[in-house]
Design brief:
heterodimer, A: alpha+beta, six-stranded mixed sheet, four-stranded antiparallel sheet, 7 helices, 12 strands, B: two-stranded antiparallel sheet, two-stranded antiparallel sheet, 5 strands, globular
């Protein structure tokens, strides 16, 4: 079995003649109290030992946030009022997903390669919740994508990757302010005529720091202390305002 | 200035939150309502997750009510005895309400029920108060003496108690029942219940308007404090950073509101509250009746089953 894999690797070698060398402007994003979103510059080069082939190379870059379960509900008119009638549960949908490419996605990546690597937004949401999907489940997945794209949580930015001399590429991925903590897998695909010829994967780490970290941990690990602290702050603030206003009126 | 909220996991403008807190605080001090029925929808609107909005709002109401009640205590316009009776009823009611809430949640239509509750109660109470205050104002204009309090069935009940601050000698059963029913509704609708409590005290118990506001605030502190602790320990949805921003504006607003409240006459105060209640009711009713721009909505988690 091991030998077979080795042979396959050897066979695949000509295709591997081009490799990705990657850099990130930052591989850690710290969420502080004044976090307003962040821009991560993804840049790199294509390393090759042979001359540049005739057919042009294309670059596709994806950044995905942690996947969480999500419920999509649809409203319908019943007895004259609009109520939630149907719902579809998705076991896992990325909280953030961005695709950046050098050209139109359907030209730089073939459908079969898209299916294999789950690159485009509908594929990335994918069949994760298929077990609960029935009938017009498609429209629920579409709605999820539509709403999240409106919130900039899902981004499709075709042609936003700059690719110089078929060698140096770079793009800026804009992470919005309402980020979920966790690992953000980042993938870079080199494609030629729709086929993936090289692939590279890395991770951007997004986490809370300082006061944000402390409050979050406290609320999860010692909820009663956290709740009492919230109440104490509320009472103190109420008393403080009352006392200072009284002083103002006297003064 | 943008602030990232650690529990809500969204970034919002700090001054917007201070402003919202201030406006709702003014209303709270003026009318003795916690302001939750206004603030919670506003927080939804600026993108705070509903669960966090409801829980954090309870914490903020504690602060603004406490600030308001201190101002009322100085003016001796709190009936502590009545407040305690209402509170006992309120806590019993809240416990019943939580059970009902969880049952309806398992059925999957809790959102609709909450909205219908809002529309029905806000509509009925708002309309009643509006008509009554309008009549009262017309009466004072025409110079006719105000009608005497009627002695109805309420005065025939046993367990009578003297409520000195309110100038009442009535049975404890009606205030206890008012407390229980407000507690149930408060737990289902996720608010302090002041906007139901205030009219109930005026119209059902016959308390003087000046005492009603302080007494309502007094019992709201305890009910919302209890709710905050429940949310913090079971759902982990109290965002203290959001609460601090809201309550800084809220406590200052509550003081201003209390001062404004003393300058207005009781009928004017009531008609303003009625107009506000009707406005919120109208907005919620329209949401239910008009075709929404987006038929789909997404909620975190696999809830709903």
């Amino acid at each position: 079995m091991g030998r077979l894999v080795f042979l396959l690797c050897l066979l695949a070698l000509p295709a591997k003649a081009e490799e990705v060398v990657l850099g990130l402007s930052r591989d850690k994003v710290a969420i502080t109290a004044t976090f307003e979103g962040s821009e991560v510059l993804v840049f790199g080069a294509v390393k090759r030992e042979a001359p540049i082939p005739e057919t042009p190379l294309e670059v596709v870059i994806t950044v995905a946030g942690p996947s969480l379960p999500v419920t999509v509900r649809r409203k319908d008119r019943r007895f004259g009022i609009w109520v939630n009638t149907d719902e579809v549960r998705l076991e896992a949908a990325p909280t953030f997903y961005a695709v950046a490419t050098t050209g139109p996605l359907d030209e730089v990546l073939s459908i079969s390669e898209d299916e294999r690597h789950r690159v485009s937004i509908p594929r990335a949401i994918g069949p994760a919740g298929a077990a609960h999907m029935a009938g017009d489940a498609e429209s629920f997945a579409e709605a999820l994508i539509r709403i999240r794209r409106g919130q900039n949580a899902y981004q499709l930015r075709e042609g936003s990757v700059a690719f110089d001399e078929q060698t140096l590429f770079r793009t800026a991925i804009r992470l919005p302010a309402n980020l979920t903590e966790g690992a953000y897998p980042t993938r870079i695909f080199l494609t030629r005529e729709g086929r993936v010829v090289a692939q590279f994967e890395t991770v951007i780490d997004v986490h809370k720091v300082g006061l944000e970290r402390w409050l979050f941990t406290l609320s999860r690990e010692r909820p009663l202390v956290y709740g009492l602290m919230s109440l104490a702050i509320a009472i103190a603030a109420g008393w403080g305002a009352s006392a200072s206003f009284q002083a103002l009126r006297r003064g | 200035m943008q602030i990232y909220l650690p529990i809500a996991e969204v970034s919002v403008n700090a001054f917007l939150l201070l402003g919202l807190g201030g406006i709702v605080g003014i209303l709270s001090g003026m009318f003795g309502v916690g302001g939750g029925f206004l603030m919670t929808p506003l927080l939804f609107f600026i993108g705070i997750p509903p669960a966090v909005a409801v829980a954090t709002e309870a914490n903020q109401i504690v602060a603004s009510s406490f600030s308001g009640v201190l101002a009322h205590l100085r003016r001796r316009s709190v009936d502590l005895k009545m407040g305690t009776v209402l509170l006992v009823g309120g806590l019993i009611g809240a416990a019943i309400g939580v059970v009902i809430f969880n049952y309806l949640k398992s059925l999957g239509q809790i959102d609709l029920l909450v909205k219908l509750c809002y529309v029905a109660f806000l509509g009925v109470i708002g309309a009643m108060m509006f008509v009554e205050s309008l009549r009262a104002i017309r009466r004072t204009r025409s110079g006719a003496p105000p009608a005497r309090k009627k002695h109805g069935w309420v005065h025939g009940l046993p367990f009578k108690m003297r409520f000195r601050a309110s100038g009442l000698y009535i049975s404890v059963i009606p205030p206890l029942l008012v407390g229980v029913s407000v507690g149930v509704l408060a737990a289902i609708m996720g608010v302090g219940g002041g906007f139901i409590m205030v009219p109930a005290m005026i119209y059902l118990l016959g308390m003087p308007t000046k005492v009603v506001v302080g007494t309502s605030l007094f019992q709201i502190i305890f009910v919302t404090g209890f709710t905050t602790l429940l949310h913090a320990t079971t759902n982990y949805t109290v965002d203290v950073a959001l609460a601090v921003l809201l309550l800084v504006g809220g406590v200052i607003g509550a003081q201003i509101g209390t001062m404004l409240g003393t300058r207005l006459r009781a009928e004017q105060l009531r008609i303003l509250l009625a107009a506000m209640v009707l406005a919120v009711c109208g907005k919620l009713a329209l949401d239910l009746l008009l075709t929404p721009a987006e038929l789909y909505s997404i909620a975190a988690g696999a809830g709903g089953h």
